[in-house]
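Repro:
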Amino acid sequence: MHELERELEKLKEHLSSSIEIINSSKKKILKKKAIPHSKVLIPSTEDYQSILQHTDVCVCLINLEGVLEHSVDSTFSLFNRDKSFVGVSAFVYFKDFPMVLSALESALDGNKSKCTILYDEKYLSLKFSPFYDGEDNTQKGICLLVSDVTHEYMEGLALQNKVQRLDSFNRDLEQFAYVASHDLHEPLRMVTNFLQLLDQEYGEKLDEEAKSYINFAVDGAARMQRLINNLLLFNRVGKVDLQLKPVNVRNIIDLKIVQLEDLINSRSVSIDIEKMPKKIIAQPKQIGLVFYNLLKNAIEFNREGIPKININFKELEKEWLFSIQDNGVGIDYKYKDFVFNPFWSLNHRKDGTGIGLALVKKIIHRHGGKVWFESEKNKGSIFYFSVAKNLT
């Protein structure tokens, strides 16, 4: 009992000490003087003038007759003029700049307007904003903001030139790919035909090693032929007009399943198709190629067991979102930046060309959408792709 009382006494002493510390701190805080109202920063007219003088944007005031009435000093240096142009009509001063005159007239009608001009080897941005009387809300004049945008303008031109050069390079590359692919057809066909004739005419005289060489050559030529065909298809996708139509997605999927019937039956593939939208606006053949390539990959990249595929979709505000899920080998995320590149293949299959997913990406981008995947190695992948609703 006495022990408990001693503990209570200790607790009371500790609590009293804490209260004293709190009260002492409170008093110190209350003693601190609040900032008087007079110390709050309220810029004067002179302050505003100083601020305007030291900013990169120059300010001019124009009355309703279009006369320049007031300007900060920095404006004159920007136009390489002295104060003599105050009092001059803006219509006269900018008479050689039709874009400025048009913007000025629009501002006098109560509209905000802007333009960029080349003035004395500088690119100047001019922004016109009407200002109004605070009492009756009638327009009193125009505030003109002028800034030197030479650096930004030149950077924009340089970027535009780079984009144009890149577009030109891409067009040249596409043309080269088309011509090269087209011109390779005949030589390849000739090589294949002569190899097959060689096998037919002299097959009995050749040993097994020689025959295997011929087979290797024929297989290589056939693979090259498939590569050329896919390259031409890849090139053509970017050139042909979309010719958008209402598309029944379920009908497209059913058609692609029929085209893959032999592969599906050989692997006993299980395909579960959720309810699809009855109509989307798209290019039927190209959307068909997307489903064909993704379904074919989902079947082929499945080494063990029965391939199981689920096809689903979700309607979003601005797009249709589709997904194709499989239980295949999956994709290591270290390859995520290469999967959609042309001529890239996960396992370098002899029958593959590495064009399929690149073709999917190109088609989906033309339909205003995106394509991506989620995957876990040895557990499967989900490929997502979207199609914009506002295609016209």
